[in-house]
């Protein structure tokens, strides 16, 4: 069984967790900084180069689940979906209690409990992908259907919505008009993250030539550059920080995500005990990292990305959050009850 393990998925999982931490660290003062100042441009740079982790997390799930034999519905709900539900309930309660202890606002704390802390949206999304797994599994069994689904996803998840956003930059009226027209299609099944779920699976099956790799990496670099540069341009035009090129469903982030996935698949497919151990702790680290960033780093240590030069503060704080989060996750994972139910 160990020989069949795709080691690059472990590397991807660990790096994606670190990238999420960098994203949240860089974004912590992104709205507060003036877009005309150097600090905001540094935050934008860091934020732009780590837009790929959530798509990559979904692609990893696609590889793992779509390569399995068909999972009975009972097992799907009782094992996989129930695990996500338990994790959400515990961590949502955890963050809501902290909020209530700090503010005494029971109404907002209750709303936070229901919605979850800002980063727990991922659990809603991944649970939704598990719910439709019987459909995506059937699609993945047909090469034609997989490619057809991905073509529709490219059109209705990435190209058309991004075209609408670009039109809106120049004219809100025509942007709203285009959005309304496209909305009439109601192509919800191929919109959002199911495309990434199937994309991860198909990318795991393809053996790329050197020429194809170069094309993918070139598009990935262009994706990074577009994210950085267009975020600056749109923010300057609108007069406020804009994140329309940050979305996981933009073409530029799609190119980033594919390039990162393929790069790790080709270059990092050898076993590493440290990476495999960190991979095991990555889910817990993701769940707890927001607490580490907000309560330990900011409130207890008094550090934030404006404490010193952001060129250094973002990676330094990200490194601290990464280390403490994985250490905390390691502790939780070594308590059998907690390992089984919340991480």
Please, how many helices? 15
Helix content: over 70%
Task: Report the C-alpha radius of gyration, rounded.
Answer: 20 Å
For the secondary structure, the number of strands is 0
Question: What is the approximate shape?
Answer: globular
Mean pLDDT: 94
Outline the low-pLDDT stretches. none
The amount of beta strand, in percent, is under 5%
Task: Tell me the distance between the termini.
Answer: 24 Å
Q: What order do the helices and strands follow?
A: HHHHHHHHHHHHHHH
Which class best fits the helix and strand makeup?
mainly alpha
**Largest beta-sheet characterization:** none
Can you summarize this structure?
Helices cover 76% and strands 0% of the residues. It has helices at residues 7-27, 38-48, 53-66, 73-103, 106-115, 121-131, 133-140, 143-170, 172-183, 194-205, 210-238, 251-267, 273-300, 310-333, 336-341.
What do these coordinates show?
The chain is an all-alpha fold and 343 residues long. It contains 15 helices and no strands. It has helices at 7-27, 38-48, 53-66, 73-103, 106-115, 121-131, 133-140, 143-170, 172-183, 194-205, 210-238, 251-267, 273-300, 310-333, 336-341. Helix 1 (7-27) packs antiparallel against helix 3 (53-66), helix 1 (7-27) crosses helix 14 (310-333) and helix 11 runs antiparallel to helix 12. The protein is globular.
């Amino acid at each position: 069984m160990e020989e069949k393990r795709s080691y690059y998925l472990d590397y991807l999982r660990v790096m994606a967790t670190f990238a999420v931490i960098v994203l949240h660290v860089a974004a912590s003062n992104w709205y507060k900084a003036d877009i005309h100042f150097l600090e905001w441009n540094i935050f934008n740079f860091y934020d732009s180069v780590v837009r790929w982790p959530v798509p990559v997390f979904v692609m990893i799930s696609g590889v793992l689940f779509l390569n399995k034999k068909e999972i009975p519905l009972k097992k799907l709900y009782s094992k996989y979906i129930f695990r996500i539900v338990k994790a959400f309930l515990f961590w949502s309660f955890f963050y809501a209690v902290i909020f209530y202890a700090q503010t005494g606002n029971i109404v907002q704390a209750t709303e936070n409990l229901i919605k979850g802390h800002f980063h727990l949206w991922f659990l809603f999304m991944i649970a939704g992908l598990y719910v439709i797994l019987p459909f995506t599994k059937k699609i993945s069994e047909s090469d034609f259907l997989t490619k057809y689904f991905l073509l529709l996803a490219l059109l209705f998840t990435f190209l058309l919505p991004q075209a609408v956003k670009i039109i809106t930059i120049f004219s809100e009226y025509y942007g709203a008009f285009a959005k309304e027209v496209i909305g009439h299609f109601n192509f919800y099944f191929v919109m959002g993250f199911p495309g990434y779920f199937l994309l991860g699976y198909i990318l795991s099956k393809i053996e790329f030539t050197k020429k194809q790799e170069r094309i993918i990496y070139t598009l990935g670099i262009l994706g990074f550059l577009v994210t950085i540069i267009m975020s600056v341009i749109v923010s300057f035009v609108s007069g406020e920080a804009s994140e329309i090129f940050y979305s996981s469903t933009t073409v530029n982030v799609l190119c980033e995500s594919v390039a990162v996935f393929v790069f790790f698949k080709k270059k990092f497919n050898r076993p590493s005990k440290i990476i495999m151990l960190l991979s095991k702790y990555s889910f817990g680290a993701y769940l707890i990292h927001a607490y580490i960033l907000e309560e330990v780093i900011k409130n207890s240590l008094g550090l934030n990305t404006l404490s010193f030069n952001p060129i250094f503060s973002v990676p330094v704080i990200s490194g601290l959050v990464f280390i403490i989060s994985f250490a905390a996750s390691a502790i939780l994972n070594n308590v059998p009850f907690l390992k089984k139910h919340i991480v």
